[in-house]
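Contributing new records

If you add data, match the layout below exactly. Sequence lines come first and carry their own label; structure lines follow with theirs. Keep one chain per record. Anything else will be rejected by the validation script.
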Amino acid sequence: MDLARKIVEMAHSKRKEAMIKVRQPLAELKVKNSTLVIREEIVEVIKDEINVKKIVFEKGKDVMAVLLDVNLTEELKREGAARDIVRMIQGERKKMGTSLDEKVNVTLEAWPKEFEEEIKKKALVENLTKGESFSVNRK
């Protein structure tokens, strides 16, 4: 677990250098080390913590190095936009004092269509409609 923490810290540092928020998913993290052995469930925790799709372990020098793929494909950008939308809706829900299971109606200028169901599910949105400005209303 200490090794996992070190990998996460190094990856977060690389994100900060590249000025990429953790909400923005990335394609890959490469970890180079000569003696690295990490259980699969820990690898999944690392992937979730740093928000990458895949982790590749490669043999390298004795010193551990992490290389973060910071190239953003259009698909990754749309997924990041969907996560930002969910965060905005959740912030409004909190301001409104909605209960944890209360559904809301949301108006947005635009959203990535392929993530519409995910946005609705994660932010408890009953109806998602297109409009001139962002708003969240009780059902």
